Amino acid sequence: MSNEKRSSWNSRFGYIMAAAGFSIGLGNIWRFPYLVGTNGGGAFVLIYMLICILIGIPLFYMEVTLGRKAQASPIVGMRKLTKKGSPWVSFGWLGVLSAYFILTYYIQIMGWIVAYLLKMLTGSMKGFTSEEYVTSFNDLMLNPKTLILLTLICVVIIAFISAKDLSSGLEKACSVMMPALFVMLILVVIRSLTLPGAMEGVKWYTRVDFSIINAKTFLIALGQCFFSVGIASGGAFVYGSYLKKDSNIPADGLMVIGFDTLAALIAGFAIFPAVFALGLKPDSGSNLLFITMSNVFMNMPFGRLFGVLFFMLMFFAALSSSLGYLEPVSSSFSELLKVSRAKGVLYALTSIFIVGLLTIFGHNILADVQIAGRNLFDFADFLSGNILMPLGAISLILYVLFHWKFDGFKNDIDEGATSFKIPIAMKFISYLLPIVLVIIFITGLF
């Protein structure tokens, strides 16, 4: 595909909403609250925000600017910037593979959200005991036919949006979904805060206890920053490749990460006041969203209505991120195989769905199959989040420092910038980043 035919964003607002939609997903509304719950509340929130500023923003800037410079998908783009066979092309491959394996289980979780949205609409969990909420979730995991059907529904929805051209598909969908997501999130927050005893949850969520901060807190917060912002998973690169040369990356990037962080913080105010109001535990872990929040909604006045709103916004968040993760994979199929956008989407999603069947079966008929002590679902998460993404981020920062050079990166990112340009202090931070990223990688691996 030639550069002349390459799509571009229709508007600055559309790009910001799409990039924010890529970042705002299950990482903010599912993963962030349960990590806050299991890592001491406000102390974790504070560290997470600092890491997003010091590490998330520089890496996001680098990946988006690299994409704009390449004007192509990650693999083809890195070949253009270096040459075919160059070791630096590994950054493109790592990003695309990260996104690919994330989607093999991410779309399945979207299916769980659809299941719980239907449960809220029908009121099928009314009168459940605490144990029955757990049993209901476990029964869903043990039913491969239902999981396959739910996942397939999500695949079709994603394909329908992504196969359209950039402005009428992905950009238009995110321009509607992102504002709607924030409106629904605020409505759930208001309802949560008006429950009797909700202020105890607010106090717990905002209280910073430095005595519980340790090295593990920093490492978990670093991992969450990667997962949430979507660094080194190809999305930021390919979204940057649709930008024009005069786009204002420094200002727009701050807005994208600002929206991402804001969504996570608001999600905490939606969840923890309700959890404390009903006397539940904030540290229940990864089932906080599905099991605990179902219990919360089914036991509050007008709970079904707000439960429907909550799981609908969860679906919007997951859908916008799925579109972002799919974009580097489908555009790579299109450019490497020289096929249309629609065919690239079809090839990518078909193969993702087939490979993703293994992560579905990992909960049931292949539950005994383990790789490195993990079932197939957990291994897909481990492979993408703990191996491929950290390796991709390390290769990104090394490319910037040793091939592109920091001054070259600064000149490129500042092209199009107006009032705000990146500070020279980022150069010092950039030389520390490889050390920090290697620590994340080694800790995540072992």
List the helices and strands and how they pair.
Elements: H1 12-23, H2 26-38, H3 42-70, H4 74-81, H5 90-122, H6 130-141, H7 144-162, H8 167-193, H9 198-206, H10 215-229, H11 235-241, H12 249-277, H13 288-298, H14 303-337, H15 341-361, H16 376-404, H17 406-414, H18 425-445
List keywords for this structure.
446 residues; mainly alpha; Hydantoin permease; 18 helices; 76% helix; globular
Q: Please, could you describe this protein's structure?
A:
The chain has 446 residues and is mainly alpha-helical. The protein has one domain (3-445): Hydantoin permease. Helices cover 76% and strands 0% of the residues. The chain has 18 helices and no strands. The chain has helices at 12-23, 26-38, 42-70, 74-81, 90-122, 130-141, 144-162, 167-193, 198-206, 215-229, 235-241, 249-277, 288-298, 303-337, 341-361, 376-404, 406-414, 425-445. Helix 16 (376-404) packs across helix 17 (406-414). The chain is globular. The two termini are 42 Å apart. The model has no long low-confidence stretch (mean pLDDT 88).
